[in-house]
Amino acid sequence: xxxxxxxxxxxYEETMRRRIWSLLSNxxxxxxxxxxxxxxxxxxxxxxTDPSRILNHNHPGPLVQYKNLVDQGKLQHDPYQESVAxxxxxLLSRLENYEREMxxxxxxxxxxxxxxxxxxxxxxxxxxxKQQNDKDWWKRLNNKITExxxxxxxxxxxxxxxxxxxxxxxxxxxxxxxxxxxxxxxxPAPKGLYIYGNVGSGKTMLMDMFYxxxxxxxxxxxxxxxxxxxxxxxxHMHKTWKKQMEEKPLQSGISSWIMNxxxxxxxxxxxxxxERYKKEVQMKHILPDVADKFFLDREGxxxxxxxxxxxxxxxxxxxxxxxxxxxxxxxxSSGTIIVATSNRAPKDLNEANMVPEFFQNLLSxxxxxxxxxxxxxxxxxxxxxxxxxxxxxxxxxxxxxxxINKFExxxxxxxxxxxxxxxSNTISVMFGRTLEVPESCEGVARFTxxxxxxxxxxxxxxxxxxxxYHTVFISDIPMMSMRIRDKARRFIxxxxxLYNHHSCLCCLASSSxxxxxxxxxxxxxxxxESFQFETEAEGSKLRRDVLAEGNVGSGGTPVGITSILSxxxxxxxxxxxxxxxxxxQTQLYLDGVSNVxxxxxxxxxxxxxxxxxxxxxxxxx
Length: 621
Description:
Oligomer: single chain
Number of strands: 13
Distance between the termini: 10 Å
CATH architecture of the domain at 381-517 and 564-609: 3-Layer(aba) Sandwich
Strand content: 5-15%
CATH class of the domain at 381-517 and 564-609: Alpha Beta
Helix content: 40-55%
Mean pLDDT: 75
């Protein structure tokens, strides 16, 4: 047996270089860019083997991050922002203990569920054994079924045909409660935060500081923008319903655990019917199922707390209110901590007064489980940061020979870093669709404005682009006007998703950022942001079916909710688009691309996996 070898860090670093070289190298593709204005490139190997990146798993808290940026002159101190950062820091300090409590809770819950299922099956078998001793029981049961069928026309309309099974089901559940006890109660969760304020006040930045600081403390973390979350909820509901329809014919069979019981065929059929009814009851509660399987989505047997960071929460239509009400109710009741941002206070989210009973449930949950924190500054800090940064060299205008040449050079430089092999590609989009990408190269893609915004594409397509490409070039961007308002709306959605995924954006446009959305002599733009979903393109009617049917205005907008699409909402939309375009040109934003974007996150995870394998190998030497 070989003695255990102590590996010094210098030896480890050399081992990492050699192994990663063999695993990941491909001729000249040994660097990846941090896509910033001065084309700085960090060597991949030295980046990966930097001791601070390998050994430091603890991220500084949001208050520390905020103060560091202020000290470095990258942010201007704002008392509102510091107050929010302090609240987030306090929440972070309570998470470690809460994570342990939730781990214990989930162990207890798992044991309770197993015990309850075993008891439920035992009760069912006891019922069968008891009734089988009564020779006339099956005859009486068949007579009851025949009688129910015969008298179905006489039954009052408000009586459900399955009321008998429902009563039996409830009695059985009550008996289980007395035998096994009620479901374990989750430990009280720390209150989350609902952060609201004006465009550019720093809400998303502060939330993201908190989210990054939870890594290593909380196992189950999710961060979604509102539009992406709604799309994924829609997609998951569609998959759930489809799965239920596919499984329904299979449920007419008898489960294997029932087939192996020492009962006759009639008894097994009765047991199978009771099992099917239980599944039917569970199928009716689709939103909790979406919450459990989509947002929680636990891997294996890992247990612990849940953090959901929800950016730009809105209630733009009936579907959003109903979905958010049901899903957040489930998540909050199971101990999930919500940190959300919005332009509006909770009580002001539903000025159109749609489905008030559902909205009141949503509002009650938010107010009970979240502290409301206002970022009250009137300053757009994205503009402030841009004014103190280098020139905005990634947004080129107007469209003339000089700017076209600069745009082409930037494209050649970006693709050249990866060998310069530009290919067409096909990427997957939600709802089983795909999108053709005409020009791409190792995480860099190029499109024209009309290709992305002049066709019936929607948020799902733009999410796919943002997830797959850390650097996106868009040429031939016109000034927005009433004549191309649909294209303008799609462009705003595209900007939102590129920003949410922290992509680097290089534009060739007809006008400056400030003038891009000012409109033309045709008038100001009409805001269609509330309809981010292109249902025709996404091949699903689930979301549209929830809306009021029939009453459609001349612009294709349901008349009942056009009031949302004007006034303050329109102002928020264009202010946010301009503000985000400005921030996306700043050094602070661009420096974060290589750390935050999903493309590089995937690279980091691959590296960490290889690193862990190497550490395991070296420890066994």
